Amino acid sequence: MSSQTNESLVLAPVSTAHGEITLPGSKSLSNRILLLAALAEGETRISNLLNSDDVRYMLQALTALGVKLTLSDDKTECLVQGKGGRLSYDGALTLFLGNAGTAMRPLCAALAASDGEFTLTGEPRMYERPIGDLVDCLRATGADITYLGEESYPPLLIRGSRLRGGQVSIRGNISSQFLTAMLMAAPLCEGDLEIVVEGELVSKPYIRITLDVMQRFGVTVDNHDYQRFVVRAGQHYRAPGDIMVEGDASSASYFLAAAAIAGGTVRVHGTGAASVQGDARFADVLEQMGAKVAWGDTWIEVSRGQLKGIDVDLNHIPDAAMTIATTALFAEGSTAIRNIYNWRVKETDRLSAMATELRKVGATVEEGDDYIVITPPARILSAEIDTYDDHRMAMCFSLAAFGDSPVTINDPGCTAKTFPGYFELFDRLTR
Ligand SMILES: O=C(O)C1=C[C@@H](OP(=O)(O)O)[C@@H](O)[C@H](O)C1
Ligand SMILES: C=C(OP(=O)(O)O)C(=O)O
């Protein structure tokens, strides 16, 4: 790392990545576990909680809702006194949820099934991220939700009530978080809840995370091939006692890709063959490109191979897929990443942002509605990378430092959404 201001970070060219990293906790698991711990009967002791913006928004929301939480000084351990049911609040409450999809969507459903009047707000980008499919589904079982701005987008006014249950359908083609939110709120309904997924379900492995966490809190879901789900009434979340958050598999992708590109070996600890996170399978994609990969139950190790371009559908790992886009800069031939339409509705329009910034370093890029094809340049150009308030844009483009020119990352602080210490670890690994 050669120089940093608040506005930008200049990464000097690097040529090796070597070492071991213990991953911070998974964002997806941290926010699910916190919410279910709050709804559960009993006390949950969480370890390896992620300390980042997205998790802080969930913690602040639960605290405002009257959930008793005790955090360790480093904010990675948390004791939660469960409410033993709905998160009811006497009066009106406004909750600011930043740009955290894993807070906005699940809290929307859980609060629709609680008592109180809740206004859910967030950063301007949150008001451009759709939530209509979830709201429609909640309304079909009795929820009272009003859009305070544009139809189908936050901010929302939720007048909590008893949700009936019954049979509902939900569209799955924009975000799996809508289904996750319905599933997690299902035990708060009065009757059985049957959820039928309409059309394609994107980001499917995240549903496995949801079902796994619900199971650990004592609630069983009948899963009919990820198309129909039934949650029987009369089930209640019960605190599991101690629960440890797996390391974040999406965060692992940058370090593993660094090893695949540079000479050296990197081992990440905290996710592996036994991981519940779909993004652990990112390593398979690196292997397909030519990297050498070894697995343990709780670790993944990657070392360099001769990388070649591939043509892949990465709908199942949309977050880690961004890391493949910048890894492609170092492969022989073109790489096509397909079926990633929902990149457009995340922290920024990631398809457009990725195409623009890859071109700055010299790549030839074809941007389709739901795919991107990247042809690497003969030599990576020195460039100033804009990050669009998107933590993953910042982290992905750190890999451009494996070219032989410096790369400037604008607004490196945006990694705080999921990985505040990212650039320090990248520096340590590549020194
Ligand atoms: O459920 C989750 O924890 C997540 C699901 C994915 O979103 P989509 O289902 O909207 O693709 C992913 O991109 C996001 O970072 C986390
Ligand atoms: C899409 C992401 O976040 P969110 O949970 O806000 O959807 C992400 O972390 O890449």
Brief synopsis:
The protein is of the alpha/beta class and 431 residues long.
Quick tags:
single chain, 431 residues, alpha/beta, UDP-n-acetylglucosamine1-carboxyvinyl-transferase, Chain, 2 domains, four-stranded mixed β-sheet, 12 helices, 29% helix, binds shikimate-3-phosphate, binds phosphoenolpyruvate, RNA3'P_cycl/enolpyr_Trfase_a/b
General description of the model:
With 431 residues, this protein is of the alpha/beta class. The chain folds into two domains: 8-23 and 249-429, Alpha-beta prism (UDP-n-acetylglucosamine1-carboxyvinyl-transferase, Chain), CATH 3.65.10; 27-230, Enolpyruvate transferase domain (UDP-n-acetylglucosamine1-carboxyvinyl-transferase, Chain, Alpha-beta prism), CATH 3.65.10.10. It has helices spanning 27-39, 53-64, 101-112, 132-140, 177-185, 205-216, 249-261, 282-289, 318-327, 350-360, 391-397, 422-430, and strands at 3-4, 8-11, 19-22, 43-47, 68-71, 78-81, 92-96, 117-121, 144-147, 156-159, 166-171, 193-198, 222-224, 228-231, 242-244, 265-269, 292-295, 299-303, 311-313, 335-338, 364-367, 371-375, 383-385, 407-410. A hairpin with an 8-residue loop joins strand 9 (144-147) and strand 10. The protein is globular. The mean pLDDT is 97.
